[in-house]
Specification:
Largest sheet: 5 strands, antiparallel
Distance between the termini: 72 Å
Number of helices: 3
Number of strands: 9
Structural class: alpha+beta
Shape: globular
Helix content: 10-25%
Number of domains: 1
């Protein structure tokens, strides 16, 4: 009986994967919609920027420009300077030839948010309904909330012409 127990215990421990519990490493590209990955390459953004996966979720989805279509944004890094930012991919209209892309940060100024988003630790979608309750002026769609824990935070939002920065802690 004790040999049977020893064999069972040995079999259970031997069948267990060693190391980190046998979990496969997730591919963060799976979180990025295929149309965004395709446009990133088709518009040659990959020549100037790298897509990063430091923020979670790796891709935010929302109607950022108020056209009632789901847009997507990803974290990027300008290759030459190392500055971080985001690329917003606006959903393509039916007859459009290309997807409009807006880069904020990554070497391009975005108001008081700066031209380098290395300070950002957390991001999320701040939906338009919440913004209306907060009385944020001129906001056409959902906003992107950027924040540093116990530090600077604010919203990047579309006013109908361009993206603006609205600080949440003044």
């Amino acid at each position: 009986m004790k040999y049977l127990m020893a064999a069972l215990l040995f079999g259970m421990t031997a069948a267990r994967p060693q190391g980190g519990g046998g979990h496969l490493i997730e591919n963060p590209l799976r979180d990025i919609p295929k149309w965004v990955r395709n446009e990133f390459s088709a518009q040659h953004l990959d020549k100037k920027y790298s897509m990063l996966f430091g923020l979670f979720p790796h891709c935010l989805r929302g109607d950022f420009n108020g056209d009632h279509r789901k847009d997507a944004c990803v974290e990027i890094q300008e290759t030459a300077s190392g500055k971080l930012g985001i690329a917003i991919f606006h959903a393509k209209r039916a007859q459009a030839l290309f997807v409009p892309v807006t880069v904020l940060g990554a070497g391009r100024p975005a108001g008081r948010a700066g031209d380098d988003f290395k300070w950002v630790e957390v991001w999320s979608v701040f939906d338009r309904a919440r913004a209306q309750n907060a009385k944020i002026p001129d906001m056409e769609g959902d906003a992107i909330r950027l924040e540093k824990r116990r530090g600077k935070s604010g919203l990047l939002y579309w006013d109908g012409r361009r993206y603006n920065w609205y600080p949440l802690n003044k």
